[in-house]
Design a protein that fits this description.
35% of the residues lie in helices and 27% in strands. With 83 residues, it is an alpha+beta fold. Strands 1-2-3-4 form a four-stranded antiparallel beta sheet, with helices on one face. It is elongated and about 55 Å long.
Amino acid sequence: MKVLLSIGIMLVALFLNACSLQRQASAVEIGCEADKVVFPKGESSLFMPQYWEANCGNRKYVCQPSGIAIFQAPSAKCKELVP
């Protein structure tokens, strides 16, 4: 029972960490405060996705992870979507 509880706690921590990494990487790349980054299709779960959309104010971006390593801060490459 303790093993299952430990695994559950680790999965929740991993999920919350992935969301935080995606938000931080997007914010740094697009020059927006992390708390103002909006993901219209939702944030990632468990693992950072191959690509995602991020909004900051009236600007829309498409992003993908780059250079993610275990001991480095996450990073992303984002391009602004122009209507």
